Amino acid sequence: MPTLGAIADDFTGATDLATTLVARGHRTVVAVGPDSITDGPGRAAADAADAVVIALKSRTAPVAEAVDSSLAALRALRAAGCRRFYFKFCSTFDSTDRGNIGPVADALLDALGERRAVVVPSFPVTGRTVYRGRLFVHDELLDESPMRHHPLTPMRDSHVGRLLAPQTTRPVRLVGLDTVRAGAAALASALDDPALADALVVVDATEDEDLRTIATATREHPLVTGAAGLALGLTGPRPDAARAAAASGPGEPGVVLSGSASSATRAQVAHGRAHLPHRRLDLAALRADFDAAVGDLVAFARACWQRDPLRPPLLYAVGDLGDLDDSPAASALVERALAACATRLVAAGARRLLVAGGETSGAVITALGVRTLTIGSPIAPGVTWARAVCGDENGGRSVDVALKSGNFGAPDIFTEAWSVLV
Ligand SMILES: Nc1ncnc2c1ncn2[C@@H]1O[C@H](COP(=O)(O)OP(=O)(O)OP(=O)(O)O)[C@@H](O)[C@H]1O
Ligand SMILES: O=C(O)[C@@H](O)C(=O)CO
């Protein structure tokens, strides 16, 4: 029976957290939405796990919808037996003045009858650190990093407290690195200070050891919030937690579907364009005749498989920022198109899909009717292969999926990820 329940605000974040939990000794299942673990095989998978991560597509949803789905996830996790909870948001704090990090954290605290929670975006292995409340992405402050230009959540400040304050009804407080470095006991008593009793508390961390200290200091807190880094300090009961074997064999058809406009993905798209057969989504063609435009992309991918099964085609939405279309429906159109490509390509034989972008991954996995994901071979920090069973409407096929966060992975990930799939 699981004891740790996590709610991730997007799908790449869910597999990011799950891969860290597996590495730390938790048998972990990723469930697609709260309903996936209420009965059937999803329920059985949850019962056999130490940790369950529920993947939501709530990061950029309307606030009320994000709150409702997060509360539904909390109810499902409690019903499954979980006693501690982890709200996983993005390591670059992707959100707007309205939310959804603050409103979801507030709602989860209220539902648990709790008053305060730590807020820990730091994830040093991917370059995210927090010092004096400012979030850095490698050497740059968040608002000076390419996250400034994100199509859905442009990050125009780097002070986590200032980003969070307009989103929450609670006061926002900061606990600095000096307190963290004083050790878990000192940090625990600092967090128990009555001045922080009702607050969301942003905690500095620049190294993995800081995250382990924060995890130890908060081990009695029913709710923690953060990126995946905090899970480094959560030791599970099974150091040998197994990883799923691949569903597909080498040479079986694969595809890269990229809807991300993030800078790391743009470098990966550039590398992919140099080494893989590729096509960019044509938004005008999709608007004019959606089915025909998707049909062209699918036909292209199938022809690529026939020519060279070892070089998966790359279907991508953004090569450079000039490709971005700022009309309101463009992002939904791209998500719908890549999701339609995924279902049609799986029907045509695709067994391995590398998807770039959290929203994009949510659209693809939902369209495939996947209910649970089992973590397989790791690819890069925060990126892993996972084994998924498609819904009956997609033939119930088992496929391998890698859900890559927009800003994770080396430039050659689209060509190199396949070699670790065993
Ligand atoms: N050409 C385009 N014009 C407008 N919107 C686009 C275009 N291409 C992609 N998008 C949209 O941009 C959004 C990118 O978000 P997504 O979460 O998929 O990537 P990301 O933010 O880089 O990833 P992550 O959340 O994992 O960091 C998607 O909604 C996608 O549909
Ligand atoms: O924390 C991160 O950066 C990622 O897991 C993520 O949330 C990507 O969308």
From TrEMBL:
Reactions accelerated catalytically: 3-dehydro-L-erythronate + ATP = 3-dehydro-4-O-phospho-L-erythronate + ADP + H(+); 3-dehydro-D-erythronate + ATP = 3-dehydro-4-O-phospho-D-erythronate + ADP + H(+)
Record flagged with keyword Transmembrane: no
Positions of the Four-carbon acid sugar kinase nucleotide binding domain: 255-414
UniProt keyword list: ATP-binding, Carbohydrate metabolism, Kinase, Nucleotide-binding, Transferase
Keyword set includes Kinase: yes
Pfam families: NBD_C, SBD_N
InterPro entries xrefs: 4-carb_acid_sugar_kinase_N, 4-carb_acid_sugar_kinase_N_sf, NBD_C, NBD_C_sf, OtnK
Gene3D superfamilies for the chain: Four-carbon acid sugar kinase, nucleotide binding domain, Putative sugar-binding, N-terminal domain
Function recorded in the entry: Catalyzes the ATP-dependent phosphorylation of 3-oxo-tetronate to 3-oxo-tetronate 4-phosphate.
Protein's UniProt name: 3-oxo-tetronate kinase
